Amino acid sequence: MTDARRASLPVDYNHSVLVTVWNENSIERFDVEPKGGSITSSGRKLFLTGGKDFRPVAIDCDSRGNIFVTDWMLVDYPNHGRGRIWRISTKPDAASTDPQSYFSEPIASEDVTEFQLVENGDSAKLTEALESDFPFLQHAAQMLLAKDDLRSERDSLMRHKSAKVRLGALLASKRSDLQSPDSLIRRFLADKDSEVRRAALMWAGESMLTELRDDLDGAINQGDVDATLFETYLAAVENLNGDFSENVRLQTARRANTLRRQLPAGLIASVAEDSAFPNEVRVLAIDRLTDAEVAGGSDWLSPLLSEGADALSIAVARRFASMNADR
């Protein structure tokens, strides 16, 4: 791929990139535009095409704006010595732009200004960036917020009404490598937003702090729990269960993949049976019961069938039907 501004091409190529597509025997033109600290393509056009033995790979430009393309020629992968190098140039009488060098000044965009305001510590822009839909702006704000001299700002944003801002404060806190993050993790595990709680579960699992095990249940013991959040909860429990975290910390195994993570025996069944958990969580647990757990728990599962057409009874009926079908 190359920036079309490095070639001597018509002025309408100033916002395009040229891309070699080896398996389609062509060079494509993509018009690009700014999008949240990055760029996006607004269209794909054919720039140049050839026959079945045209296999363009590398592409670059010289200081005069000529385009050079390596052509592998054959579909065969071994070094066959039959490749080509093509030069593409504009006609002498055609109107074209002056080619830009590798180190020419970049074209400024509004996104660049946004980044600069964030990096300069503008408090209002920092919050706006955390709420942005664009991940590059979010990341820039999180990186800045992770600095020690912005700790008070970070602590303040943990109480922000926007879940995106609270999530940004969480990720910044995690990146700041706190010595004792357990109290912060506990706080985020109880957040009202499911995405914040999911990030807190990931932080808890990665922290290997076994004292957080009993606090993990709080992340699923409230509404708005989907399958992704429940799976994250199970993964965090696995990390903090048994000797896994201790073995990771002490590096007791020669190879990391020999360390086995496992859930506490009967955990999923206990969640499915416990009426203290929201029904949506119990449904997710019922769907994950083994056949043995379904058969052994029929005394508490069967009464749930009489609840009518609610989610719990449907989940139990589905699980019983699945077990019987397997048999």
From TrEMBL:
Q: Which domain of life is it from?
A: Bacteria
**Entries under InterPro entries matching the protein:** ARM-type_fold
Q: What is this protein called?
A: Uncharacterized protein
Q: Which organism is it from?
A: Rhodopirellula bahusiensis
